[in-house]
Amino acid sequence: MSDNRFHPLRLLRAFLRPIDPVLALIMAVLFGYAFVLMSSASPERLDSQTMHFVIAVVVMWCAAAIPGQRLLSLALPLYLLGVVLLIGVALFGEVSKGAQRWLDIGITRIQPSELMKIAMPMMLAWFFQQREGRIGWREFIFAGLLLAVPVALIVRQPDLGTSLLVAAAGFYVIFFAGLSWKLIAPVVIVGSLGIGSIVAFGDSLCQPGVEWVGIREYQKHRVCTLLDPTQDPLGKGFHIIQSTIAIGSGGVLGKGWMAGTQTHLAFLPERHTDFIFAVLAEEFGLGGAAVLLVVYLLLILRGFQIAAMAPTLGTRLLAGAVTMIFFTYAFVNMGMVSGILPVVGVPLPFISYGGTALVTLCLGVGILMSIRRSRLANKS
Amino acid sequence: MNAYHAPEQDNARFRRRVLVAGLFVLVCFGLLAARFYFLQVVRHDYFHTRAEDNRIALLPVVPNRGTIVDRNGTVLARNYAAYTLEITPSRTGGLEDTIDRLAEIITIEPRDRRNFRKLLDESRNFESVPIRTRLSDEEVARFVAQRYRFPGVEVQARLFRDYPLGSTASHVVGYIGRINTRDLERIEERGEIANYRGSNYIGKNGLELSYEAELHGTTGVEQVEVNAGGRAVRRLSNTPAVAGNDLELTLDIELQKIAENAFGKRRGALVAIEPSTGGVLALVSAPTFDPNLFVEGISTQDWKELNESPDHPLLHRAIYSAYPPGSTFKPFMGLAGLTTGKRTAGQTMADPGYYVFGGHRFMDDKVGGHGMVDLHKSIVVSCNTYYYQLANDLGIEGIANFMGPLGFGSRTGIDLPGEAEGVLPSPDWKKRRFRKPEQQRWYGGETISVGIGQGYNAYTPLQLANALAAVVNDGKLFKPHVVRHVVDSRSGEKRVIEPEPIRQLQYKPEHLKAIRDAMVGVNKSGTGARAFAGAPYEVGGKTGTAQVFSLRGAKYVEGRVTERLRDHSWFIAYAPADKPTIALAVLVENGGFGSQSAAPIARQVIDYHLLGKRPNQPAPEDADAVESIE
């Protein structure tokens, strides 16, 4: 029997069991895309990015191998660890480029806010699961507090991009848990009014010397640059001007792989990280961009499908929130590169160069796979 | 909101929410798709042209940095043009290989390679980094002939900073250096990133730092057509750079040189101020250093030499080091006595040679005492006992309340970076300074030492000179300043840096006269008489000697310990006595008595300032000067 148990085919099956074939296929397409783009944008980084992929896939597999319910029991310790590390950053963190985001733990530097992107929705999903059947306004207020504390710590660093992502991740759980529309509507209205007024009165608000309450100078600068990039052609506006030129000049079919002049004449800044989408749009055109949008859409649909089928409240909420995180990354990044959102440091999910975000995102995929399996297990 | 209990209902609600979220996703992606369609189809032609035009590159045009000249127009900081060899790493085939091949036609020292590595790490993307500066004409010619072999390598004409007077006034002028990541963060915080695009240097110290905003200028933009290799082919249009503004100083560089030379090899500081404006005439910190060493990044060896020297040449003693003022404090104490009404000018006391407080004898310098002493005599002969008693009568609060408004113990606000506050001792200060309750208590005996300028007192030479300037300027205290005019680079217009009065102190004219008469007496018949013997002008002054209690962190160097334990020598002076045009404070570290080292330096400086007389050697040490701890 024992030799049979270790038969290569059985081993392979055991290895593949946690993997969701649909998600795996989508990942493969995205990684393939990433590889093609990185070869064009920054071939010297292919090796290290391949390493990042390997690590991220291992993390994904590990998460997928953990049963969905057990995942949630990790929520509280992870969340507490995250909060403690964030306080540690506030007290002892390293300052780099005007922001205090890193914590030196001797061996390496870590960025606890990254952990929060996953720990936050896990925590809230676990919390609502504990209160299942008794979820009322008290629960929502408490969930709001659980969300507010780490977000406030991250805003203070200051790291607007990450705090938005963490806040969004938490908000999605609360939203899926059934927060009343009466409470959601005012936020949406106030938000759109605020953005609307900035767009309408941007010229006078962006005069130097006008201070925006609660907003740092560089953040104001980003919004103002978005409204009128030509104001600062050598500074921040440079990014947006060059990336819209790259996208627009790509046309319907693109200039062809390795043939993007914006990319290869080095006009495009950050072309291997946050602005890699512009490389895609320049070299593969509207067609290439549409394919990417469809792939992301498929990923999100699969995520929602897994969420809708999930066996318990906690796993449902978590799967829904994780899916929406993918959406947020994709939307914010492409929106920023194409000039409809301000420049915040959010990478293009699964494609931008960099290990940290990739691991976080693949951890999310692993969680989805794990939740899908807990449904199968329940059925059988 | 209603709690819901049935799991099915719960699940149905969740699915509805997922549906809403899905719709939201579709709307947002639709928005993106619309945006892509707009950019890539509707406006494709426009962006296509823009991309073609992007062969048109926007290049920053670095402005010329403003120059710095003294009050007579002598140049202290200027620019000169020289060729540099620069590499844009992203455009070379292989960086190491390129450098190796370059080394075959142009001298590239290991040091150049090290520097290049360092700059490369700090550089921003797509920027060229210099591998060699100050190429000779021959080297330029050799490179240009073989330029086709080196893509990504360019010869550039760049401006370099030069300090023609070298170490003279180096602490005042300061220096510039390459922009490092810390500077970059500061630039970013000020929102000046765009203006510094293309700039490689920034003020690091002295006026170069404090007037960075004036000196730097405004970066221009040049549109050039570039070929595929990124080389500029043709200039299309440009917004010229606006050169930085020039600075014209209040400093008289000849006076500065004489003052610096007067120190010889001794350590110390000198501050000379024009009392009627607060303009600084000379600001010496000895020893000095050569700022030219810093411009291109100082070599490890030079840095080690400067940084580890026991003489601490980089320290700006005149504005950063605080010393007990010793007896130079007495004129101010005397004025405090008169102003508060605790003393009148004619009031006398008998000096037995000591003062008893709390069972402790505070000694006078003269055994047996000075006999009957009034205010005038107390300053002329520097009588301690008079001030022990006065300090006790004023109380520590009384002293602090009088000295604070004169600027003691607070920054003067001079237009130079790195000024120290010094210490104006008071019970409040002690509470803030110390932790343990027994250390926080103020003891009466401590007031007595403060009265003669010892104890916790610690002031910068600048504070002392500025306070003296106020006293001889009828109580008008100015913010001292080094820059007199900022000269607009475009119009040539001179923007006057107006003398900025800090406050008008309310002293009675007869009180000020009594103090000034006594200070004139010091140089006629008192402790300063030997230094000013034969001076054809009237000059007021006061000697001082500050006790050195410990080595205070100086490194132990055998053979120098005894010298380092000698007292600090102080002298404050103003001239001409009736209508002063200069007020100064001189400090010589471990110079012994005030009359011994500091007073002869003051004499040379005032001689030049009033008579134009140039000394032919450093100020002598008057070894015979007799005084004890004043």
TrEMBL record, chain A:
It catalyses: [GlcNAc-(1->4)-Mur2Ac(oyl-L-Ala-gamma-D-Glu-L-Lys-D-Ala-D-Ala)](n)-di-trans,octa-cis-undecaprenyl diphosphate + beta-D-GlcNAc-(1->4)-Mur2Ac(oyl-L-Ala-gamma-D-Glu-L-Lys-D-Ala-D-Ala)-di-trans,octa-cis-undecaprenyl diphosphate = [GlcNAc-(1->4)-Mur2Ac(oyl-L-Ala-gamma-D-Glu-L-Lys-D-Ala-D-Ala)](n+1)-di-trans,octa-cis-undecaprenyl diphosphate + di-trans,octa-cis-undecaprenyl diphosphate + H(+). One of its GO terms (cellular component) is plasma membrane. One of its GO terms (molecular function) is lipid-linked peptidoglycan transporter activity. Pathway: Cell wall biogenesis; peptidoglycan biosynthesis. PANTHER family: CELL CYCLE PROTEIN (PTHR30474), PEPTIDOGLYCAN GLYCOSYLTRANSFERASE MRDB (PTHR30474:SF1). Peptidoglycan polymerase that is essential for cell wall elongation. This is Peptidoglycan glycosyltransferase MrdB.
Automatic annotation (TrEMBL), chain B:
Its cofactor is Zn(2+). It is a single-pass membrane protein. GO terms for molecular function: penicillin binding; peptidoglycan L,D-transpeptidase activity; serine-type D-Ala-D-Ala carboxypeptidase activity; zinc ion binding. Zn(2+) binds at residues 351, 364, 370, 383. It is an enzyme of class 3 (hydrolase). InterPro entries: Beta-lactam/transpept (IPR050515), Beta-lactam/transpept-like (IPR012338), PBP_dimer (IPR005311), PBP_dimer_sf (IPR036138), PCN-bd_Tpept (IPR001460), Penicillin-binding_protein_2 (IPR017790). Keywords: Carboxypeptidase, Cell inner membrane, Cell membrane, Cell shape, Cell wall biogenesis/degradation, Hydrolase, Membrane, Metal-binding, Peptidoglycan synthesis, Protease, Transmembrane, Transmembrane helix, Zinc. The active site is at 327 (acyl-ester intermediate). Pathway: Cell wall biogenesis; peptidoglycan biosynthesis. It is found in: Cell inner membrane; Cell membrane; Membrane. It catalyses: Preferential cleavage: (Ac)2-L-Lys-D-Ala-|-D-Ala. Also transpeptidation of peptidyl-alanyl moieties that are N-acyl substituents of D-alanine. Its EC number is 3.4.16.4. SUPFAM superfamilies: beta-lactamase/transpeptidase-like, Penicillin binding protein dimerisation domain. One of its GO terms (biological process) is cell wall organization. Pfam families: PBP_dimer, Transpeptidase. Binds one Zn(2+) ion per subunit. Residues 268-606 form the Penicillin-binding protein transpeptidase domain. Residues 61-236 form the Penicillin-binding protein dimerisation domain. Belongs to the transpeptidase family. MrdA subfamily. This is Peptidoglycan D,D-transpeptidase MrdA. It comes from Parazoarcus communis SWub3 = DSM 12120. The gene is mrdA.
